[in-house]
Every structure is written in C-alpha cells, then in structure tokens.
Amino acid sequence: MDLLTDFIQGLVAHPFWGWLKPLLVGSVVFLAGLALRRILFSRFSRWAAKTRWSWDDLAVQAFRGPFVLWSLMAAIYAAVDASPVSERVVGLSGKTLQLLWVLSLTLVALRLSDQLIERYGQKIATALPITSLTQNLVKGIVLVIGALIILNGLGVSITPILTALGVGGLAVALALQETLSSLFAGIYITASRQVRVGDYIKLDSGEEGYVADIAWRSTRIRNLPNNWIIVPNTKLASAIVTNFNLPSQDMAVLVEVGVDYRSDLAKVERVTGEVGKQVMREVAGGVPDFEPFIRFHTFADSSVSFTVILRAKSFVDQYLVKHEFIKRLHHRYREEGIVIPFPIRTVILEKPAEPSPLKGEG
C-alpha cells in the first residue's frame, strides 16, 4: 500500500503529469459517456418498442449516433480544463465546443424532422401537405433557428442582422420578382389543397396527368405515357384546372350506345343494366355497390341512342371499365338478338334533265 501511495505521489510530482492528467481525465469522461449512452439507449429502446408510436423509435435512432460525438466533446472540454493552460484558452474551447454542440443538435433536429415528415406524411397531410416545398420550408426553419442560436452564442446581436435582412430582402424581392412569385404561388397551391400530390388533373391548356411534386418554383406532372410535364407555379395558380380526385376520387363513366329502331327498348334497358352490374362487380376499378342506369336521349339517323352511366374508382380505371363493358355488351347483344346497326345514309341521285330541242331543228 505504501508503495502504491509513493508511486502515485511520485507520478503527480513528475513534470509529465501536467499533460498526462488531461489525457486520463478525458479518457475517463469519454468512457463514462459511452457507458451512459449504452444504459440510456438500451432502456429507451425497450420503452420505445413497447409503445404504439413510431416517433420515439425515430428519436432513439437520431440521437444514438451523435451521443458518441457529444461524449467526445465533453471529454475534450474536461481534458482542456484539467490541462495547464490559461483560463482564456479553457473559455475559448468551451465556447467552441458549445457552438459545435448546437450545430450538431441542429443537424439532428433537421434529420429527425425530415424522417417525421416522411413517416407521418399521410397522417398529417390534412394539416401539412407533404411536398418538396413544405419539406424544404421545415428544413429552412430548423436551420434558421440553429443559426440564430449560434450567432447568439458568439455574442452577435441579432437585431441589426434582422434589420439588414429586412432592407436587403426588399432589394432581393425586387430583383427576383418572378422567382418569388413562383415560390408564393407554390405555397398557395400547397396550402389551398385544391391540387395535391397524387391527384389527377387536367389544365385548360390540355396538359393532364398525376401531380408528382410541388417544388419551390414549379410543379411536376407525370402524364400517362410516363413523361414529366413541368408547369411553373404561377401558371398553375392562374390556370383553370380540372381535378379528377376532388371532391371524391371515384367518377362517372359515360358510354354512348345505339340500337336498331326495331329493338324492344325495355329489353335493351334490362340487358344493358345486367351487363353493367356484372362489370361493376367483377372488373377491377369498378364500384361494386353502384347501380348502373341508362338514359335514352336521341332518335339518331340509324339508331335509337342512349347513354350508359357506370362508375370507376379513379380516372384511369375508366379505361378498363369501358373496355370490359363494351366487350361484354357486344357479346350479350348478339346472344339476345339485339342489333347495333351500321351507320345508314340514304343517297338520292337525280337524273339530269334532257336538253330541250333547239328551234329550227327537225
């Protein structure tokens, strides 16, 4: 015991101890941080696994990695504080590590907010539509808050900066009128929820397709041939848009049919309705509980014309519904002896009048 005491006293009295002590202190703090990380996150992981939410699992994953960096930063500060350096160096290192901690915490919050938006995007879509514009706005808010905290930690007054940004922002707004118009048009489109990501829309200029994303400058529309249509937000905000997903996604499907004048129209109505019900029940994209109906409307040139009203679950489903309905109706009409007439035109050819004999002839 005396030998150990003498060894420790001799080590402390040695000139090299002034630099060995910070290394030992830093190592102990770092190992303590790793042990604390293991204890805390093992308990938090077990607790998160028992809950029915997923945000706690995302939080555990987001903080698990940076906690090692924070332990290292704490170890560096403890080592510097235990080293034979001036108080000024200790204070400067502490402030630097504090700013790095705020920066890392900002990055963690940025990553966590991005994951939460992706995970809960469908659930919070009624309050915050999930587009690249809204995701970038959330990231921008997190970064601005982190930057303000860092500036405040550096002792920089925020009030003059905000004043300068206000004056400079006016000049930038005048120079970037078109860009800012697209940005605010995108915010309006997103907030109004009249056009949403995933909706099938058609513009008054003829372009149509699924809304893939609403960005800060333009909206991407994917048409049925699977090509992009890039529409500036300002043009989309001022265009006449038909949204086939609002107020509901299902839609009426109208099919024009004509039968021979000699047909029994009551039988035609019954047979057509039966085929329509069969299509609604058996074809993917049909609305099973919808009751199809027909409406006679025209004595056409060669047929009695009527409209069959079906219903599809979405805009693109109407094509398969029409396809199957026409195919099955044609087959059923042949079985029932109902004639779909060819177009008929009556052409009257007039015989030209014979020329009258000239005077003096004959």
Structural class: alpha+beta
Question: How far from one another are the termini?
Answer: 163 Å
Estimate the helix proportion, in percent.
55-70%
Q: What is the ordering of alpha helices and beta strands? A: HHHHHHHEEEEHEEHEEH
Total domains? 3
- The low-confidence parts are none
Q: Quote the beta fraction.
A: 5-15%
Which sequence of strands runs across the widest sheet?
4-3-2-1-5
| Main sheet record | 5 strands, antiparallel
What would the average pLDDT be, to the nearest integer?
78
Query: With helices defined by DSSP (H or I, 4 residues minimum), what is the helix count?
Result: 10
User: What gross morphology would you assign?
Assistant: elongated
What does this structure look like?
The protein folds into 3 domains: 10-153; 179-243, SH3 type barrels, CATH 2.30.30.60; 251-336, Alpha-Beta Plaits (2-Layer Sandwich). The protein is built from 10 helices and 8 strands. The strands form 2 sheets. The protein has a 5-stranded antiparallel β-sheet with strand order 4-3-2-1-5. The chain has a 3-stranded antiparallel β-sheet with strand order 6-8-7, with helices on one face. Strand 2 and strand 3 (218-222) form a beta hairpin. The chain has 362 residues and is an alpha+beta fold. Helices cover 57% and strands 14% of the residues.
Q: What topology emerges from the helices and strands here?
A:
Blueprint (H helix, E strand, L loop, with lengths): L1 H12 L3 H34 L4 H28 L4 H33 L12 H22 L4 H18 L1 H16 L7 E4 L4 E7 L3 E5 L5 E5 H6 L2 E3 L7 E9 L5 H18 L10 E7 L4 E9 L4 H20 L26
Antiparallel strand pairs: 1-2, 1-5, 2-3, 3-4, 6-8, 7-8
Helix pairs in contact: 2-3, 3-4, 4-5, 9-10
